[in-house]
Amino acid sequence: MVDQLFINLPVADLPRSIAFFTALGFTINPQWTDDTAACVVLGDKHCLMIMVADRLATFTPKPVSDAHTATEVLNCLSLPSRQAVDDMVAAALAHGGTTWKAPEDHGFMYGHAFADPDGHIWELVHFTPPPAQ
Description:
The chain is of the alpha/beta class and 133 residues long. The chain has helices at 14-23, 53-56, 82-94, and strands at residues 5-11, 27-29, 37-43, 46-52, 74-78, 104-105, 109-115, 121-127.
């Protein structure tokens, strides 16, 4: 079983990305932050490491992808309500993000999505609890 999760993504402008993710309500862990990388706290044991591309390149022998031109990963976050989904998309749009698909209501699940300023896709979902038996 996984104890913690760290997602590592390249960014072009670290201060802009820090401002973007804090505008969405996330905090930065200063213990893992410097002028080339920042640790965005997504949850108790879930973190996003945003790194300038040169720094991220030191962790992999493969080229660092440009999320504006290729999709390597789709990130999906589960939020506690439909309103939380809509609020985070609105905050993303107000701070440099873009939408890439319309909201979807599947009854049991509501979702919407945005791309951050570096082109990384973030899907947001809220699962409707099943009725009590």
